[in-house]
Amino acid sequence: MARKTKAEAEVTYQALLDAAEQVFLNKGVARASLEEIARTAQVTRGAVYWHFQNKSDVFKAMLERVRLPMAEMTENAADERTGDLRTLRNLCVYALQTLVKDQRHFRVYKILFHHTESEHGLRLQDEMTQESIDTLTRFFSNHPPHSSLTASQAARSLHTQMLGIYVDWLRNPDAYDLSAEAECLVDTVFRGLCPENEPFQTNKENP
């Protein structure tokens, strides 16, 4: 059999991740199998092993497709030279609205928070939590929050409140219009984080 071209391999790789989203969402990560992912992608099981060692690798790659762009934006917001409170606030609004408008983000985060029973998936949640808190702590170290909060306290407060919105809305997306309410929810959090000498004002502009 002729070796696949790089372009053909990439098409198969993306098809497998698309199939994994579908299978994980329907069956849960723990009950899904590589055979079913291959069948859904209409490829052989050998094609799966060409790209991934096991189901954990598939899950991680699926998550990275939506995680990496947002992680890069968060890193930029934490940069001492370019980041500020308004940038971080806008990023949080953007993240919530993207969760509503981008079906891939919706599927992957619903899988992560509501269809992950595997030890590997739960461990990835812990890793993401620590990464988020570390990045936000660096942000608030460069841009001090309200004087009643340390940088790490501000970071954990923002992380847990954003996480709560994700988990709550993904459990029942019909409960309320998250896209419409994103700014109000985020601004409520940021008013408590803002330094006393920089009163937080709402701003309708998003990145």
From TrEMBL:
Q: Which Gene3D superfamilies match?
A: Tetracycline Repressor, domain 2
Tell me the Pfam families matching this sequence.
TetR_C_2, TetR_N
Q: Which InterPro entries does the entry mention?
A: DNA-bd_HTH_TetR-type_CS (IPR023772), Homeodomain-like_sf (IPR009057), HTH-type_TetR-like_transc_reg (IPR050109), HTH_TetR (IPR001647), Tet_transcr_reg_TetR-rel_C_sf (IPR036271), Tscrpt_reg_MAATS_C (IPR013572)
Residues the UniProt record assigns to the DNA-binding region sit at: 33-52
Q: Give the record's keywords alphabetically.
A: DNA-binding, Repressor, Transcription, Transcription regulation
Every HTH tetR-type domain range? 10-70
Q: Which domain of life is it from?
A: Bacteria
Q: What is this protein called?
A: TetR family transcriptional regulator
Instruction: Tell me the organism.
Output: Marinobacter azerbaijanicus
Which lineage is the organism of this entry classified under, starting from the top rank?
Answer: Bacteria, Pseudomonadati, Pseudomonadota, Gammaproteobacteria, Pseudomonadales
